[in-house]
Task: structure prediction
Amino acid sequence: MDNQTLLGHLHAHFPQAILASNMAHGALSVTLRREAYVAVAQGLRDDADLRYTFLENLCAVDYLGRIPRFEVVVHLVSMHHRHRVCFKVGLSEDDPALPSLTSLFPTANYQEREAFDLMGITFIGHPSLARILLPDDWVGHPQRKDHPLLEEEIAFTFNQERIYAHKPFAQK
Amino acid sequence: MTILIPTPQQITAPALAGATETMVLNMGPHHPSTHGVLRIVIELDGEIVVNLAPDVGFLHTGIEKNMESKTYQKAVVLTDRMDYLAPLSNNLCYALAVEQLMGVEIPERAQVIRVLLVELQRISSHLVWLGTHALDLAAMSVFLYAMREREQILDIFELVSGARMMTSFIRVGGVAYELPAGFLPTVEAFLDVMPAHIDEYEALLTGNPLWLERTVGVGAVNGEDAVALGLTGANLRATGVPYDVRKAMPYCGYETYAFDIPIGKKGDNYDRYRVRMAEMRQSVRIARQAWERLCAMPPGDFMTHDRKVAPPPKQEITQSMEALIHHFKLWTEGFKPPVGDSYVSIESPRGVLGCYIVSDGSPKPWRVHFRGPSFINLQALAHLAKGRLVADLVAVVASLDPVLGEVDR
Result:
């Protein structure tokens, strides 16, 4: 399997799905429409000639200032063909939501939770979309580029009341 | 069949609502058998595990976010701190991703040094796994033997980099320094004795009836489920799937070394043990080949000659204006990869370690993401330990070999 063959296959089977593609550094990466994303992943997984059964990586990137602002990046591997393909889906700032891949690839579970936790991407249909690395009462998604750095004030006796009043546990 | 991966909240909710048929037990975060700061919430029926969920994040230090405010070369030190039992593998993965982004040519000698060090790292990481795994199953003496040989490897790392664990030795463009005098004989002395030592560990465990009772058939998973769960490394190969990045998508010239991929059959604790033991032997074999190549090469080429990436040697700075400018630019500003992204994965001791880097053309990465194999392997814990005793869960955690620094990053 090489990049050209796979890209040809994608163009033939999912003509509506592909927005752009490139082969920088010898790796095929394809930008997909959000609606077609799950169908393409399923197509590649279930096709007996392709067998992209291993979801190696799933992560999100925040391109602040660009439209669409967010991008979810997925790397699928065919162990049979020893080939990797990268899918990207752009997501707007107002609606950073994407269908979940967990029903196709159980391994997407933690990776989608991580992207939700740190980047604030919602994965529709995920069985348990909860924070994974940060505490449950954390406010915000720190890997976003507009998340303020070094904002936390240290509580001493003289300012403790004022700081604790803003904490999530005080608002309950 | 869909595989469910519950959250800790889902396990505790029925108990908090008053359900009494089963008991919820907290294991960790401070528990010796969790190999770090890992909390496991277990739903128990008597002593049988009905369901469980790992609770991770206690060691989250925001390494990926931190890298965004460091230059590419300075970010290398953060990679050491993820998988702290295999810092050189992390260095290598990150360096390869940046090099792919920049399109840098790495001299062959630097590649060979990298392979040699990474394979030694694999042995040392597997030795910690072996020692702690055996310790969890009450075989105390193996730990002492394993640490003895690991010490020898750490001495080699100290010799080349000055640090025993957080080496930061593999840098973008090659490796940090020239190899010191006495490196090759020290490595040879280690490679000479290691196969006999592996025999020694195997004599203690492989046929030991107590060991067999605790490992054979415990935590079994089939190949299809293992791929679906994203298991990689020895955990995947123990199920019989011969996937190793070093063979499937070779990097650093691994295609030129002769080695085999050990695989198992049943995917239980015992197969994982056998695969890792065989992997150590293969690592010795690769390291031996790399050592032979190094002996045949003249010293010198340890860093790329691309002056946009690697600083010029000291003598050059004193004579050439251009070299001085390169030196100044590199250490004040850093190098600027072109706009774009790159993804590289390598076979770390724990599985497929991936690094995704996005560059916006500035000297600092726009986004770095690591696919930590420990993080993803941990998802399989519930699938592997359900329906077994709590004591088996301890064995399964040890056998999956997670490093919590990498899980939480």
In short: Chain A touches chain B through 40 residues (CB under 8 Å).
